[in-house]
Amino acid sequence: MVAIDHQAELTRAGAHVTGWWSRIRFFARRYPLGAVGAVIVTLFILTAAFADIIAPVDPTATNSKFSLAAPSHLFWLGADFMGRDMYSRIVHGARISLAVGAGAMGLGALIGISVGLASGYLGGWFDLIVQRLLDIMQALPLLVMAIVMAASLGPSLRNTILAIAIPLVPTVARVVRSNTLSLREQPFVEAARAVGMGELRIAVRHVLPNTLAPLIVLATAQLGSAILVEASLSFLGLGIPEPHPSWGRMLSESAAEYVRTAPWLVIFPGVAISLTVFGTNLLGDALRDILDPRQRS
Amino acid sequence: MGSYLVRRFLLMALTLFGMSVLIFVMLRLVPGNIADILVDASGADPKEKAKIARELGIDRPIAEQYISWISGLSRGDLGYAYVSERPALEEIAPRIPISAKLAGMAIFFSILFGVPFGVISAVRQNTGLDYFLRVLSLSGLSLPSFWLGLLVLMAAVHWFGTIPIYDSNPHGFLQDVAMLGLPALVVGFRSSALIMRLTRSSMLEVLRQDYVRTARSKGATNNSVNYNHALRNALLPVVTVIGIEAAFLVGGLIVTETVFNIPGVARFLVEAILWRDYPIVQNLVMLIAFVVVMVNFLVDMAYMALDPRIKFAD
Amino acid sequence: MRLREAILAASSAALVWAAVPAFAQKAGGTLRISHRDNPPSASIHEESTISVNQPFMAVFNNLVFFDPREKVNSPDHIVPELAESWTYNADNTQLTFKLRQGVKWHDGKPFTSADVKCTWDSLAGHAPEDKAIIRKNPRKLWYSNLKEVKTNGDFEVTFVLGRPQPSFLTMLAGGYSPVYACHVPDRAMRSKPIGTGPFKVVDFKRNESIKLVKNPDYWKKDRPYLDAIDWKIVPNRSTRMLGFQSGEFDMTFDSDVTFPLLKDVKANKADAVCEARPTNVSSNLLVNRDREPFNNADIRKAMVLALDNKAFHDILSQGNDLEGAVMLPPPAGFWGMPKEQLPKLLGHSPDRKKTLAEAQELMKKAGYGPDKMLKIKVATRNIAIYRDPAVILIDQLKQIYIDGELEPIDTTVWYTKIQRGDYQVGMNLTGVGIDDPDVNFYENYYSTSDRNYTHYKNPEVDKLIDQQSAEQDREKRKQLVWKIEQILADDGARPIIGYNVANTCWDPKVKGILLQVNSIYNGWRFEDAWLDK
To answer: I want to staple A66 with a disulfide (CB 3.0 to 4.6 A). Which of A79, B107, B223, B244 is the partner?
Structure first.
């Protein structure tokens, strides 16, 4: 459905464009903020992928000589009190953020989609019970739920992803379920059933692709909030443990002590988090406008 | 309507019950308990540990512990905090007004900034001002509030050479406002961004509708149309958003109370989790869940009251 | 300032202060101090952290006390407090105290020998469970040689020892040995304790504040000078520092000002009086000698050789931490071996190049190299003061082909885990309440101790520990202590990376504060402190 929507948009605008490059240019002009967001997100992903090349210095290497070194040509973003290069730590931190953000979002979506599809498709008692369970999960704010989960599981990369993914499940499940409910009675689904297609195949082949648009919008929003929640957890000391360079962790404990003597320790990791989340939000807004015309503002 | 309310209350009760089981079991799956913390940190004597566990009742079967907690809760007895050994109610109650005041001020700020900017942004759609305000509101959703808090502290140090340190006995109303005002602004920034975005989009929807065009064609001046007719209608969904956001403020409160060293109920939750102080954690989580469920209920009621088109099927 | 100079300067300052006539002190005023975290309880006997000692010592008295006018806690400078005098019997197995009369608890009840008996019966584990005035007992080990406490009338009490133990009196003189009241239940001691000391507890609000007021009926005439002490609990260190700089607090928490922060404090509060001193907390390496591949002595030795202690000190305290063996090194430490002997010990050689090469050789011999790294987990407690040295350790171990990954362990399970031996390599901090060989050796190195985390067992060392403990001759005892230090270092029992040094600061108007240099836990009675306003 995504492709069709694009095409509709292009046709509406009266643009006679062919080839993906022209399309990108078209959308960039139509949604300048979204384009900025896309650039930020792409940069973020590239940084995470090529961290070793962009910042070859070991982000965990300590050096007493450079404790709290100010930004300079040697240390572009300064050094922390152990003399670790902040530039390298922030670049490698993108990896952690992406791993947790994408991991939690992906896992949350996977569980949410399965639960939502099953719930909407099967209906009855199963649906009722699932709905009540989702109610319970949504009775706690995202961060509170993640804090309780993270404290229960203990600090590690895997556990942090889990602790953030689970609270993300209800929203996805609800969206998928409501779409499934309305799609289940659509003619093309009836048709598929008439030609003897199995229910599971119908669900996966026909129903799921049609809920993709709102899911993509939702996923982008959740990527941003997963990154923010990871940062908050690590800030509170419940997320990714040292010496992994997590942006949130860099802002906790010792960093705050040097608010005055070494402000770069506070400023740069915060900029990294904010910029990344800002980018996903811009992109998310544009995607929503493109893919989900009902919500267009 | 009557049977809708009955069903609704039953569902709420069910949700809270489920939450109580969930949090109770989850806490007990966590490795390490208060007896471990108390005894291990200072040399271990298994006998002492067993004695403390017995005193606190954490050696009993989980089901039994759960029943005694819930039956206590129904009598208004929250049990004893493990760490302070005082009634949990006495530990929690004095912290609630602090967080409530902070949350109240945050909501006040977020409406104060969110609604007008949202309206302006909608009325000036696609102008430079609109873009600026939209970027600003998006940044509100992107800045981690603990970082914003640190930046505010840095600014305070830079300009005033000092920072607000929380004092439980403020000298008058003004100091109270000054102490909580900055943190409230930090917490409220995110909410105001959300309110602004929703005000803007519902304003835009209303502005496109027929009766506004009619009013305009009747010769009403542009400004009076925009602000009188449209705003009144656009406020409807905004009110509900404010309600929902109030529940989500809790997350912002946790980190902000940590950054600004405010002894509120949100930071207390994190501390209690780290200490495995079950009675405090359980009751606080239930309190938060109760607030969230109630707010959702009130929001739905507000929907019904404000928008006659919405009817809830029995 | 280097530490030696600091101590010299401070002790001369102390002389000047002692010489000032008594009328110069002004009475009155409230001393405001920042506190770093929430004290787990107010009961000193149940806890082992400065978070409890510093605020609550002022509520109590001991039988005997390290002379508050002396910088170094030593067996030579013990003065009477609730005891007026003490004597040993002929074979040094009975220690009898004559108690001060007319002393009252804060609730008005009189202090008697029964209170002393109650306290030490509980501490030695002799009291029946329902009579114990403590719930947990972290220093039970201190009193394993105490057989009985006998009272003789209301004002005389005798401690009966199993064998002579000169350190026994020393242990009674520390901040961890207050006299508790028989009639106050343990729960009250944890939340609003009652003592005989110069200050009374008004209230202790968790996570918020501790308020103490002057005890008007204090047995020491004209003390304390202060009307009150207000502690405010501020968990965020930068907030505490800013509060001190802006005059919110008159004094920082003990050892709260690290060297990187000192510059900032001085820059923003030029008149601040800051003093550096060791906290008698050592950072040390735990290697699980029962586990593969660390049961290979070569690998353990290589790890000790690879440690660059100086790099740790440079990062953690801008080079101010102290190099030492098992006992706090002199001049701050009373018992540690002389500085000249230290380089001969394994892991303390100044020739880094040579030791590193030797370490690499040993690792190669064990079958490791740049292409075959030994993968390990480095366990540590999940708080900054533990994690920071662990991060440096991992970085240093890379040089000898060890690829470490940090395993941060929640405080709740950390001690259980290492006690069980459920770790490969650990980074640990060991705090010593009193600079005394018995306190340190029996707890950390005796083969039967629970807190001998590396399960180091050496019958020769056990024998030497017992021998030094009973030795009455100070010089002979020191020789024995140094010998033990040597063996422990060469066996890599628990390699000591360094002794932490940190600063405590106060406003110049605060007078009568004297920091003792070999323990942070003992000097906080606050009865001589006053404000020059």
So the answer is: A79
Task: Please check whether residue B226 lies inside any domain of the structure.
Answer: yes
Residues B233 and B267 in one domain: yes
Does residue B137 sit in the same domain as residue B284? yes
CA–CA dist A148, A167 (Å, integer): 11
* Interchain contact B51–C (C-beta under 8 A): yes
Contact between chains at B162 and C135 (C-beta distance less than 8 A) = no
A263/C contact by beta carbon, under 8 A: no
d(CA A277, nearest CA chain B) in Å? 5
Question: Which CATH number goes with the domain that contains B124?
Answer: 1.10.3720.10
Q: Which of A135, A38, A97 is nearest to A229 (CA)?
A: A97
C479 touching B (Cβ < 8 Å): no
- The distance in angstroms from the start CA to the end CA of chain A is 21
Q: With CB atoms and an 8 Å threshold, state whether A60 touches C263.
A: no
Interface of C with A in 301-360 (CB under 8 A): 311, 314-315, 318-319
Residues 6+ apart with CB under 8 A from C423: C286, C288, C377, C379, C407, C417
- Residues B71, B109, single domain; the answer is no
Of B75, B91, B107, the last residue of a domain is: B91
Looking at the fold, whether B119 and B14 belong to one and the same domain comes out as: no
Provide ipTM, 2 decimals: 0.84
B190 to chain C, closest Cα gap in Å: 24
Report the chain B residue with the minimal C-alpha distance to residue A140.
B289
Q: Which residue is closest to A149 within chain B, CA to CA?
A: B26
Q: Are residues B78 and B98 in the same domain?
A: no
C462 near C297, Cβ under 8 Å?
Answer: no
Range of the domain at B191: 94-306
Answer yes or no: are the C-beta atoms of B16 and B285 closer than 8 Å: no
Q: Are residues B24 and B111 in the same domain?
A: no
Global pTM?
0.84
Is residue B175, in this structure, part of any structural domain at all? yes
Strand-pair category, C83-88 with C94-99: antiparallel
Q: A292: buried, middle or exposed (CB in 10 Å: 19+, 13-18, 0-12)?
A: middle
Residue B213 and residue B102 share a domain: yes
Distance from CA of A274 to the nearest CA of C (A): 23
Residue B312 located in a structural domain: no
- CB-nearest partner of C136 from B33, B39, B274: B39
C394 touches chain A (CB under 8 A): yes
Going residue by residue through chain C, which has 533 residues, state the pLDDT in tens, using 9 for 90 and above. Answer: 444 444 444 444 444 444 444 558 899 999 999 998 888 889 999 988 899 999 999 999 999 999 999 999 999 999 999 999 999 999 999 999 999 999 999 999 999 999 999 999 999 989 887 777 888 888 888 999 999 999 999 999 999 999 999 999 999 999 999 999 999 999 899 999 999 999 999 999 888 899 999 999 999 989 999 999 999 988 878 788 888 988 889 999 999 998 988 988 998 899 999 999 999 999 999 999 988 899 999 999 999 999 999 999 999 999 999 999 999 999 999 999 999 999 999 999 888 899 999 999 999 999 999 999 999 999 998 777 888 899 999 999 999 999 998 888 877 678 778 888 889 999 999 989 899 999 999 999 999 888 899 999 999 999 999 999 999 999 999 999 999 999 999 999 999 999 999 999 999 999 999 999 999 999 999 999 999 98
